[in-house]
Design goal:
The protein has helices at 3-7, 9-54, 87-101, 107-116, 126-135, 166-169; strands at residues 141-144, 148-151, 172-173. With 195 residues, it is mostly helical.
Length: 195
Amino acid sequence: MDDVHAQNPAQLRDQLVERLRVIEAQIESLHKERDALRSDLTVTDQFLAVWRRTNNVQGPPARTETTIFPVRSDMPVPPRKPKNPPRDYVVTKALEIIHERGEPVPRSELYEALRTRGVEVFGKDPVMVLSTMLWRSDDRIVRLKDHGYWPKDESYVPASYYPDLDEVIGVADSEPEDGQIEEPDDDAEVTSRED
């Protein structure tokens, strides 16, 4: 990694994400081209067989599937499930956004702000996956009811949140947002409170 990227890791990450997207698009395009070529080859072989019979021309035996095509075309390749970034990284980026705004940020706004910075969270319900990640990081971030997410160790007077008094006053909501958490089998990144 050169010095320019060492100074701006976010820019490097954005470049890597974009390069990965380009490569994945090229792979998908190549798969489509391969399938079209296989189809054309099959039609051409059928045409040659008919032409040879019609013109009474001896030719090579009919083509059989060879090792040129190690993957069967009738077997769809399952899409790879994108992997979520580490929870600690997501929480760090979320706290950066909150600090920049200077006020608590609701879950959906936080999700969109993270996406605009290239931090993608995946799952059946990505916003809920983000919520679960944040909830499992209750040592660093809290959700203030009717306000949004806020750093756990910082006071927020408009919501009457004082970290030292929260166990007594109870302003920070300790339950998962909407009372739900992402199922552990759906995404390994949200299953453990220890990571």
